[in-house]
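Hi P.,

Sorry for the delay on this. The queue was packed all week, but I finally got your sequence through. Input first:
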Amino acid sequence: MPDNLGGVPSIVVATVYAEALGQNVQSKIAVANAIENRFQDTTYEFRNLPTYSRVISSKNAFESFGNVNFRLVSNVLAGRKSGEHLTSKQRQALIDSFIAAWVVYNSILPDTTSGALYFYSPYIDQPAYITQGLASGTLEEVYPADVNPNKFKFFRRSQ
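Then the structure:
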């Protein structure tokens, strides 16, 4: 995918879109922050992921990577499909996803997730690494403003 979106890697926009589809802009910003936090992290788990593509496409990193929503937006962003392939709701979600990614990528706002590296939707089972991290005390939940914790849960390493 080209990086012609005001400097924002299009894979980040597509991931924010696919992960937070149907959610508010604050949720999209929180997802973009989690991606950025992984990209900036230098600890063992993330140190060998020097590009956004590697961060996003690494095994089990983002459930939406490669799904139908990710592929649709990736094709629109790459010019393989026109925006006419999107409904008006999808176009608005793409615009919101771009804004969220741009705000985070350009450090316009402070990190709304307080350093969260992980998140999941409670609509699916809690990932084992979250359960283990909470039980061992290595992870703690954070609550980004205006993000519904019934729709997204965010976690950072314990301080």
